[in-house]
């Protein structure tokens, strides 16, 4: 794999990810509320749009362990805390962060309670904006297939062998930009918004992506890259890519 180009952010990170909605311009505020997007613990906003009712054997299952509440710790607990903080602040017409009773999110409380099976697939919409412009390094056990809806951004993928791959996603396909890309399970992934290249979508409209995870996403299969491990994972590029490592 050829060396990837140097990476630098184009927008400052938010001071408080739970309070970015009031900072969004009206058209993005309307998009977020219309699509019922929620603040994402990785950064940006998301909504789960589909969770397959088909259950398959969990390919990541390890030794049996006592059943535990998946919302009590780990990234699921962090996500719930973020949503609670977002809903408790004075944000005007903030999106409803109560648990839906219909659609894919209706199964949210069932996440990871059955360690023997997984949903065959799950899908989300994921949005980065100038006020909430980056997704922090994380990895999933399952592979994720991404498709561009609109906008422009850069994804940074660190493979298990240490190779760093970067790719620009956008509509300029002849210029090498991607409209579909796959991140395999076990790879560290980060992303950030790029300015538009003449279309007006990158800065004004953010980056909207559809992401399908196979087998389906569970918080138990997700982890963040932390500061303690960043040097070992990012190597000589830690100083360059460290802005994508989540604080805390």
TrEMBL record:
Residues 85-104 have a biased composition (Polar residues). Pfam families: Cupin_5 (PF06172). Residues 30-225 form the DUF985 domain. Residues 1-26, 50-105 are annotated as: Disordered. It comes from the Eukaryota. Residues 1-15 have a biased composition (Pro residues). It comes from Elsinoe australis. This is DUF985 domain-containing protein.
